[in-house]
Write a structure and sequence with these properties.
The structure is a homodimer. With about 150 residues, chain A is α+β, with helices and mostly antiparallel strands. Helices cover about 35% and strands about 25% of the residues of chain A. The structure holds a DNA duplex (30 and 30 nucleotides).
DNA sequence: GTACTTTGTGGGCAGATGTGGGGAATAGTG
DNA sequence: CACTATTCCCCACATCTGCCCACAAAGTAC
Protein backbone atom coordinates (compact mmCIF):
# COMPACT_ATOMS: atom_id res chain seq x y z
CA UNK A 1 0.00 0.00 0.00
CA UNK A 2 1.87 3.01 -1.29
CA UNK A 3 1.55 6.13 0.79
CA UNK A 4 0.44 9.50 -0.52
CA UNK A 5 3.11 12.13 -0.90
CA UNK A 6 3.88 15.34 -2.70
CA UNK A 7 1.97 18.53 -3.24
CA UNK A 8 -0.13 19.56 -6.21
CA UNK A 9 -1.77 22.89 -6.83
CA UNK A 10 -4.88 23.08 -8.96
CA UNK A 11 -7.44 25.71 -9.70
CA UNK A 12 -11.00 25.50 -8.51
CA UNK A 13 -13.59 26.52 -11.07
CA UNK A 14 -16.69 28.52 -10.32
CA UNK A 15 -18.67 25.34 -9.70
CA UNK A 16 -16.30 24.28 -6.94
CA UNK A 17 -14.62 21.57 -8.97
CA UNK A 18 -10.92 20.67 -8.74
CA UNK A 19 -8.93 18.19 -10.73
CA UNK A 20 -7.70 15.34 -8.59
CA UNK A 21 -3.92 15.14 -9.13
CA UNK A 22 -3.06 12.36 -11.54
CA UNK A 23 -0.04 11.23 -9.55
CA UNK A 24 -2.13 10.79 -6.44
CA UNK A 25 -4.78 8.98 -8.37
CA UNK A 26 -2.26 6.33 -9.31
CA UNK A 27 -1.69 5.68 -5.62
CA UNK A 28 -5.33 5.25 -4.74
CA UNK A 29 -6.22 1.63 -4.29
CA UNK A 30 -8.62 0.30 -6.93
CA UNK A 31 -10.69 -0.91 -4.01
CA UNK A 32 -11.58 2.69 -3.26
CA UNK A 33 -13.41 2.89 -6.59
CA UNK A 34 -12.72 6.62 -6.95
CA UNK A 35 -14.88 7.19 -3.90
CA UNK A 36 -13.65 9.50 -1.18
CA UNK A 37 -14.77 11.04 2.05
CA UNK A 38 -13.92 14.67 2.58
CA UNK A 39 -14.14 16.45 5.91
CA UNK A 40 -12.80 19.21 8.10
CA UNK A 41 -9.24 18.72 9.18
CA UNK A 42 -7.84 19.58 12.56
CA UNK A 43 -5.84 22.33 11.01
CA UNK A 44 -7.76 24.79 8.82
CA UNK A 45 -7.66 22.43 5.89
CA UNK A 46 -9.65 19.49 4.55
CA UNK A 47 -8.95 15.79 4.78
CA UNK A 48 -9.66 13.55 1.87
CA UNK A 49 -9.78 9.82 2.51
CA UNK A 50 -10.07 7.19 -0.17
CA UNK A 51 -12.97 4.97 0.73
CA UNK A 52 -10.83 2.06 1.86
CA UNK A 53 -8.96 4.16 4.39
CA UNK A 54 -12.11 5.90 5.49
CA UNK A 55 -13.52 2.57 6.54
CA UNK A 56 -10.78 2.30 9.13
CA UNK A 57 -11.84 5.65 10.52
CA UNK A 58 -15.42 4.45 10.71
CA UNK A 59 -14.26 1.38 12.56
CA UNK A 60 -12.90 3.68 15.22
CA UNK A 61 -16.05 5.75 15.20
CA UNK A 62 -18.21 2.71 15.66
CA UNK A 63 -16.46 1.98 18.90
CA UNK A 64 -17.53 5.29 20.36
CA UNK A 65 -20.35 4.72 22.77
CA UNK A 66 -23.49 6.31 21.38
CA UNK A 67 -25.32 5.81 24.65
CA UNK A 68 -23.30 8.53 26.33
CA UNK A 69 -23.88 12.18 25.70
CA UNK A 70 -20.21 12.82 25.04
CA UNK A 71 -20.10 9.95 22.65
CA UNK A 72 -22.95 11.36 20.65
CA UNK A 73 -21.34 14.79 20.65
CA UNK A 74 -18.17 13.32 19.22
CA UNK A 75 -20.01 11.45 16.51
CA UNK A 76 -22.24 14.34 15.61
CA UNK A 77 -19.53 16.93 15.37
CA UNK A 78 -17.27 14.61 13.54
CA UNK A 79 -19.65 13.35 10.90
CA UNK A 80 -21.40 16.65 10.53
CA UNK A 81 -18.67 18.04 8.39
CA UNK A 82 -17.94 14.91 6.43
CA UNK A 83 -19.30 14.11 3.00
CA UNK A 84 -18.83 11.49 0.35
CA UNK A 85 -17.44 12.69 -2.93
CA UNK A 86 -16.45 10.84 -6.05
CA UNK A 87 -14.47 11.64 -9.14
CA UNK A 88 -16.42 12.79 -12.17
CA UNK A 89 -15.56 11.63 -15.65
CA UNK A 90 -12.82 14.25 -15.84
CA UNK A 91 -11.23 13.08 -12.59
CA UNK A 92 -12.45 16.03 -10.58
CA UNK A 93 -14.06 16.28 -7.22
CA UNK A 94 -16.44 19.04 -6.32
CA UNK A 95 -15.86 20.66 -2.97
CA UNK A 96 -18.94 21.16 -0.79
CA UNK A 97 -19.53 24.85 -0.17
CA UNK A 98 -19.36 24.63 3.62
CA UNK A 99 -15.97 22.96 3.43
CA UNK A 100 -14.65 25.63 1.10
CA UNK A 101 -15.73 28.18 3.68
CA UNK A 102 -14.10 26.33 6.51
CA UNK A 103 -10.80 25.88 4.73
CA UNK A 104 -10.75 29.28 3.05
CA UNK A 105 -10.29 27.65 -0.34
CA UNK A 106 -11.57 29.78 -3.18
CA UNK A 107 -9.87 29.69 -6.56
CA UNK A 108 -6.90 27.47 -5.79
CA UNK A 109 -6.50 24.23 -3.88
CA UNK A 110 -3.28 22.68 -2.72
CA UNK A 111 -3.27 18.89 -2.36
CA UNK A 112 -0.72 17.40 0.00
CA UNK A 113 -0.29 13.67 0.28
CA UNK A 114 0.07 12.61 3.92
CA UNK A 115 0.45 8.85 4.12
CA UNK A 116 -3.08 7.48 4.29
CA UNK A 117 -5.00 10.64 3.52
CA UNK A 118 -4.70 13.79 1.47
CA UNK A 119 -4.86 17.27 2.89
CA UNK A 120 -6.33 20.09 0.86
CA UNK A 121 -5.32 23.63 1.72
CA UNK A 122 -5.90 27.11 0.64
CA UNK A 123 -2.33 28.06 -0.34
CA UNK A 124 -2.65 31.37 1.48
CA UNK A 125 -3.89 29.67 4.63
CA UNK A 126 -1.04 27.23 4.64
CA UNK A 127 1.38 30.10 4.30
CA UNK A 128 -0.09 31.88 7.28
CA UNK A 129 -0.21 28.68 9.20
CA UNK A 130 3.44 27.94 8.58
CA UNK A 131 4.55 31.54 8.94
CA UNK A 132 5.71 31.03 12.49
CA UNK A 133 7.36 27.75 11.70
CA UNK A 134 11.02 28.58 11.40
CA UNK A 135 13.41 26.19 9.76
CA UNK A 136 15.17 25.53 13.01
CA UNK A 137 11.99 24.82 14.84
CA UNK A 138 10.89 22.50 12.06
CA UNK A 139 14.07 20.50 12.32
CA UNK A 140 13.66 20.30 16.02
CA UNK A 141 10.10 19.05 15.63
CA UNK A 142 11.21 16.64 12.99
CA UNK A 143 13.74 15.05 15.27
CA UNK A 144 11.34 14.91 18.09
CA UNK A 145 8.65 13.21 16.08
CA UNK A 146 10.84 10.92 14.06
CA UNK A 147 13.31 10.23 16.79
CA UNK A 148 11.60 8.84 19.78
CA UNK A 149 9.01 6.15 19.17
CA UNK A 150 7.10 7.06 22.26
CA UNK A 151 6.72 10.68 21.22
CA UNK A 152 5.33 10.41 17.79
CA UNK A 153 1.68 10.66 18.60
CA UNK A 154 1.17 14.35 18.44
CA UNK B 1 -23.31 -0.77 4.88
CA UNK B 2 -22.35 2.82 4.43
CA UNK B 3 -23.01 5.04 7.38
CA UNK B 4 -24.92 8.28 7.31
CA UNK B 5 -22.81 11.38 7.35
CA UNK B 6 -22.88 15.04 6.49
CA UNK B 7 -25.20 17.89 7.28
CA UNK B 8 -27.92 19.24 5.04
CA UNK B 9 -30.10 22.24 5.68
CA UNK B 10 -33.54 22.40 4.13
CA UNK B 11 -36.53 24.60 4.58
CA UNK B 12 -39.75 23.40 6.09
CA UNK B 13 -42.85 24.59 4.32
CA UNK B 14 -46.02 25.69 6.05
CA UNK B 15 -47.41 22.18 5.89
CA UNK B 16 -44.49 20.82 7.89
CA UNK B 17 -42.84 19.13 4.94
CA UNK B 18 -39.06 18.92 4.40
CA UNK B 19 -37.14 17.51 1.50
CA UNK B 20 -35.14 14.48 2.51
CA UNK B 21 -31.54 15.14 1.46
CA UNK B 22 -30.70 13.35 -1.75
CA UNK B 23 -27.25 12.32 -0.59
CA UNK B 24 -28.66 10.65 2.47
CA UNK B 25 -31.32 8.97 0.42
CA UNK B 26 -28.63 7.24 -1.59
CA UNK B 27 -27.31 5.72 1.62
CA UNK B 28 -30.64 4.37 2.80
CA UNK B 29 -30.84 0.67 2.23
CA UNK B 30 -33.45 -0.33 -0.36
CA UNK B 31 -34.76 -2.68 2.30
CA UNK B 32 -36.01 0.34 4.22
CA UNK B 33 -38.42 1.10 1.38
CA UNK B 34 -38.43 4.83 2.13
CA UNK B 35 -40.07 4.05 5.45
CA UNK B 36 -38.74 5.74 8.58
CA UNK B 37 -39.45 6.05 12.24
CA UNK B 38 -39.10 9.50 13.74
CA UNK B 39 -38.97 10.25 17.43
CA UNK B 40 -37.61 12.52 20.12
CA UNK B 41 -33.86 12.46 20.45
CA UNK B 42 -31.96 12.52 23.70
CA UNK B 43 -30.64 15.91 22.83
CA UNK B 44 -33.23 18.52 21.82
CA UNK B 45 -33.43 17.12 18.32
CA UNK B 46 -35.22 14.37 16.45
CA UNK B 47 -33.99 10.95 15.45
CA UNK B 48 -34.92 9.51 12.13
CA UNK B 49 -34.34 5.79 11.61
CA UNK B 50 -34.73 4.00 8.31
CA UNK B 51 -37.00 1.06 8.89
CA UNK B 52 -34.24 -1.54 8.78
CA UNK B 53 -32.24 0.16 11.50
CA UNK B 54 -35.33 0.83 13.53
CA UNK B 55 -35.90 -2.88 13.72
CA UNK B 56 -32.60 -3.24 15.54
CA UNK B 57 -33.75 -0.66 18.02
CA UNK B 58 -36.92 -2.62 18.56
CA UNK B 59 -34.83 -5.72 19.14
CA UNK B 60 -33.09 -3.95 21.96
CA UNK B 61 -36.35 -2.65 23.31
CA UNK B 62 -37.79 -6.12 23.37
CA UNK B 63 -35.00 -7.19 25.64
CA UNK B 64 -35.82 -4.50 28.18
CA UNK B 65 -37.50 -6.12 31.13
CA UNK B 66 -41.12 -5.10 31.01
CA UNK B 67 -41.74 -6.67 34.38
CA UNK B 68 -39.79 -3.93 36.09
CA UNK B 69 -41.29 -0.56 36.66
CA UNK B 70 -38.22 1.17 35.26
CA UNK B 71 -38.35 -0.99 32.20
CA UNK B 72 -41.93 -0.06 31.51
CA UNK B 73 -41.21 3.62 32.09
CA UNK B 74 -38.37 3.58 29.60
CA UNK B 75 -40.37 1.76 26.99
CA UNK B 76 -43.46 3.88 27.43
CA UNK B 77 -41.70 7.20 27.23
CA UNK B 78 -39.56 6.12 24.38
CA UNK B 79 -42.31 4.85 22.13
CA UNK B 80 -44.76 7.51 23.14
CA UNK B 81 -43.19 10.07 20.88
CA UNK B 82 -42.29 7.80 18.00
CA UNK B 83 -44.12 7.80 14.70
CA UNK B 84 -43.77 6.18 11.32
CA UNK B 85 -43.22 8.48 8.39
CA UNK B 86 -42.55 7.83 4.75
CA UNK B 87 -41.35 9.83 1.80
CA UNK B 88 -43.94 11.38 -0.46
CA UNK B 89 -43.58 11.42 -4.22
CA UNK B 90 -41.29 14.44 -3.98
CA UNK B 91 -38.97 12.76 -1.47
CA UNK B 92 -40.23 14.76 1.48
CA UNK B 93 -41.21 13.76 4.95
CA UNK B 94 -43.74 15.66 6.97
CA UNK B 95 -42.79 16.37 10.52
CA UNK B 96 -45.46 15.67 13.15
CA UNK B 97 -46.45 18.87 14.92
CA UNK B 98 -45.56 17.63 18.41
CA UNK B 99 -42.05 16.77 17.27
CA UNK B 100 -41.57 20.17 15.71
CA UNK B 101 -42.53 21.65 19.05
CA UNK B 102 -40.16 19.42 20.95
CA UNK B 103 -37.21 20.13 18.70
CA UNK B 104 -37.94 23.80 18.13
CA UNK B 105 -37.88 23.31 14.38
CA UNK B 106 -39.92 25.87 12.50
CA UNK B 107 -38.88 27.04 9.08
CA UNK B 108 -35.54 25.29 8.72
CA UNK B 109 -34.38 21.78 9.49
CA UNK B 110 -30.80 20.60 9.70
CA UNK B 111 -30.23 16.93 8.91
CA UNK B 112 -27.09 15.36 10.35
CA UNK B 113 -26.12 11.83 9.43
CA UNK B 114 -24.87 9.93 12.47
CA UNK B 115 -23.95 6.40 11.48
CA UNK B 116 -27.17 4.39 11.68
CA UNK B 117 -29.65 7.21 12.17
CA UNK B 118 -30.22 10.79 11.14
CA UNK B 119 -30.61 13.63 13.56
CA UNK B 120 -32.81 16.59 12.70
CA UNK B 121 -32.13 19.86 14.45
CA UNK B 122 -33.36 23.36 14.57
CA UNK B 123 -30.19 25.16 13.45
CA UNK B 124 -30.58 27.72 16.23
CA UNK B 125 -30.98 24.99 18.84
CA UNK B 126 -27.89 23.21 17.70
CA UNK B 127 -25.96 26.43 17.91
CA UNK B 128 -27.04 26.94 21.49
CA UNK B 129 -26.35 23.35 22.28
CA UNK B 130 -22.83 23.55 20.90
CA UNK B 131 -22.17 26.98 22.35
CA UNK B 132 -20.24 25.56 25.27
CA UNK B 133 -18.33 23.18 23.06
CA UNK B 134 -15.08 25.00 22.64
CA UNK B 135 -12.82 24.43 19.70
CA UNK B 136 -10.20 22.95 21.96
CA UNK B 137 -12.62 20.47 23.40
CA UNK B 138 -13.72 19.50 19.96
CA UNK B 139 -10.16 18.91 18.86
CA UNK B 140 -9.64 16.79 21.88
CA UNK B 141 -12.67 14.74 20.96
CA UNK B 142 -11.50 14.63 17.41
CA UNK B 143 -8.18 13.18 18.37
CA UNK B 144 -9.90 10.56 20.41
CA UNK B 145 -11.56 9.33 17.31
CA UNK B 146 -8.79 9.86 14.82
CA UNK B 147 -5.91 9.22 17.10
CA UNK B 148 -4.64 6.43 19.22
CA UNK B 149 -6.42 3.10 19.31
CA UNK B 150 -6.28 2.93 23.06
CA UNK B 151 -7.85 6.35 23.48
CA UNK B 152 -11.00 6.08 21.52
CA UNK B 153 -13.37 4.79 24.12
CA UNK B 154 -15.68 7.35 25.50
C1' DG C 1 12.32 18.78 -33.12
C1' DT C 2 7.16 16.68 -34.26
C1' DA C 3 3.29 13.78 -33.38
C1' DC C 4 0.61 11.75 -29.91
C1' DT C 5 -1.26 10.96 -25.27
C1' DT C 6 -2.42 12.45 -20.81
C1' DT C 7 -3.86 15.97 -17.74
C1' DG C 8 -6.06 20.19 -16.38
C1' DT C 9 -9.70 23.82 -17.28
C1' DG C 10 -13.95 25.83 -18.73
C1' DG C 11 -18.66 26.03 -20.38
C1' DG C 12 -23.20 24.14 -22.11
C1' DC C 13 -26.92 21.28 -21.17
C1' DA C 14 -30.12 17.69 -19.45
C1' DG C 15 -31.87 15.68 -15.63
C1' DA C 16 -32.17 15.57 -10.58
C1' DT C 17 -33.32 18.10 -6.53
C1' DG C 18 -35.51 21.51 -3.53
C1' DT C 19 -39.55 24.58 -2.85
C1' DG C 20 -44.10 26.20 -3.02
C1' DG C 21 -48.96 25.91 -3.87
C1' DG C 22 -53.62 23.98 -5.63
C1' DG C 23 -56.87 20.59 -5.03
C1' DA C 24 -58.99 15.87 -4.29
C1' DA C 25 -59.69 12.32 -0.95
C1' DT C 26 -59.93 11.22 3.97
C1' DA C 27 -60.69 11.65 8.67
C1' DG C 28 -62.27 14.23 12.82
C1' DT C 29 -65.87 17.28 15.12
C1' DG C 30 -70.07 19.31 16.59
C1' DC D 1 -74.99 15.66 8.10
C1' DA D 2 -72.19 19.84 7.07
C1' DC D 3 -67.90 21.90 8.22
C1' DT D 4 -63.13 21.91 9.26
C1' DA D 5 -58.50 19.94 9.27
C1' DT D 6 -55.39 16.95 7.61
C1' DT D 7 -53.05 14.17 4.30
C1' DC D 8 -51.43 13.06 0.08
C1' DC D 9 -50.90 13.65 -4.83
C1' DC D 10 -50.03 16.48 -8.67
C1' DC D 11 -48.10 20.39 -11.12
C1' DA D 12 -44.87 24.32 -11.72
C1' DC D 13 -40.65 26.40 -11.34
C1' DA D 14 -35.88 27.73 -9.82
C1' DT D 15 -31.62 25.90 -8.78
C1' DC D 16 -28.12 22.75 -8.62
C1' DT D 17 -25.40 18.62 -9.99
C1' DG D 18 -23.18 15.76 -12.87
C1' DC D 19 -22.52 14.65 -17.72
C1' DC D 20 -20.67 15.75 -22.10
C1' DC D 21 -17.79 18.17 -25.35
C1' DA D 22 -13.97 21.20 -26.46
C1' DC D 23 -9.62 22.88 -26.04
C1' DA D 24 -5.20 24.28 -23.82
C1' DA D 25 -1.18 22.83 -21.47
C1' DA D 26 2.03 19.48 -20.23
C1' DG D 27 4.31 15.28 -20.76
C1' DT D 28 6.02 11.17 -23.66
C1' DA D 29 7.68 8.63 -27.60
C1' DC D 30 9.94 8.56 -31.72
Amino acid sequence: MPSFKGQYEHSVDNKGRVAFPAKLRKLVSPAAQDQFTILRGQEPCLYLYPQDHWEEVEQKLSRVNSFSKNGRTVIRNFLRFAEDVSLDKQNRISLPAHLMDYSGIDSTALFIGTVDRIEIWSPARLNDFDADLSDEYFHELFEKVMGDESENRE
